[in-house]
Amino acid sequence: MSLFMSPPPRSIYSVMSNRARSLIFFAILAVALWLILFPQLFVVLESLRTAGGWGLAHYREFFSERANIQATLNSFWISVWSVLLSAVIGTPLAFLFHRLEFPGKKVFEALAALPILLPPLVGAIAIMFLYGESGIVTRSLQFLLGLSQPPLRFSGFSAILAVHAYTLYVYFFLFVKAGLERLDESQLEAARSLGASEARVFQSVTLPLLTPALVGASLITFLTSMASFSAPYLFGGGTRVLTVQIFNSKVNGDLGLAYTQAVVLVAVSLAVLALLRRWESGRSYASLSKGAGIGARRIKNRNLERVLGVVAVGVVTFLLLPHLMILLVSFAQEGSWTTQLLPPRYTTGNYRRLFAEPQFFDPIRNSLWMACVATAANLVWGFLAAYLLSSRRRFYGRGLLEAVILLPWALPGTVLAIALASTFSVQAPWRGQVVLVGTFWILPLAYFVRNVPLLVRAVQSSFAQMDPSVEEAAYSLGAGFFYTMRRVLVPMVLPGIVAGCLMAFVMALGEFVASIVLYTLDNRPISVEILAQLRQFNFGTSAAYGVVLIVLIAAVLLLTRLWNREATEISL
Questions:
Q1: Is pLDDT above 70 for 184?
Q2: Are the C-beta atoms of residues 78 and 244 closer than 8 Å to each other?
Q3: Which domains are delineated in the chain?
Q4: Which of 192, 367, 496, 498 can bridge 459 by disulfide, Cβ–Cβ 3.0-4.6 Å?
């Protein structure tokens, strides 16, 4: 009997399609429950397991130690301040680039959004080369001021906030800019015609209509900051945060406490998510008119236009300076850069070593191979899941499937890694557990689970734009279910598939948080090797790995753009 509720079928093909959908649903739900939900439930159960059976001993230990309470509060307040600082940077930039015209606007607008496609670890390393205790900016100030000690100590609470603001402002920039493009100019003109000043129009009309964009950016920024590991691990100093506490507990073998810390971290993230969703659901932000969106306004004052242009270029250049810095350091000869302001000797040997010596090339090959495997799994599973969720036919279990698919978005990488490590470290097939920890496949599995929501959402958006009568027409002409899927549905949602695969591949290629917990010597990815080289003070090699990672991501983006342009020309 089919799970899908629809009018009585008019042909054998409708019956077959419903049965096929039911089979797909059971397969998709089984994988979702096994690989996404089951590991999280396993973590909760393990946090309750004690030497004498079951109980709250680990939670009593957690709340009795001041370090854990302080780490929880630090994680929360760092996330709150990260949201505020990112909003202060990203929101004005969005207004500046959207509402004004100045020379080179398009180029710098594209550059302003570039950090979202770069791995957080690379950005953190680059910032360290600039503002760390031995960074270029710090040494320059020390030399200019004639100081015996570095004037900056880039560590602790403020350093984490600086890195977060630098890497997370892009969410506000992109969300607010998209919100501005959807605003109706006629509403603003109506407010002005009633005598409202520009400040009043902004406060009473523009800002309320931008609230969904601001809430969305705040939510993603908060969750990303709560899940952040790179910045606290590299710059935290004595500042404790939950993600690093979880990692340290696992390394020290205190798995019960690690499970408990993971549960607390997820609980805080989900609580904030629920509060924001509840607050937003009680308000309406819809525009009642259908006028044209706000276009860019040319400034009549030429001097002001030049000043704003210089400001925009200066801000974007400053935000991209760390990535230019990592390119410079990648050519530094190992062992030559000690107390000098800039590396005294340069070489291409760092890059030759990466591609000539197997032990240095292995992380590059591993990252490419694991990202491809994970993305292929995301493609097959995510496409079928998006097809089911986009169906206009109601079916039992839809809400459960949607909730499980969205779960990885609310899970910090350390929590996901701990969950997978605890679930797939024993051989118990009757409980759905097999040994994957210590094997090559544990990291592709982590990348797959982490990026499930990205591909499903991307493909769903394409299905939403497709007329459902096209699929029914194929059935009425005698096409079978799988033939219709292959020749009709896949070509029509191909842009969403490409976009989802691109995001999943890029995220897997530079993933660090789950990798540092789950990797082995044989499958270590580029991100882990960057940190390993940094610990050995091989700054040039570490930076060269970072540049290779950036170039690989840029190449994927370029090839995708060229493919899309070629496909568009063929369709025309």
A1: no
A2: no
A3: 57-284+294-331 (1.10.3720.10)
A4: 496
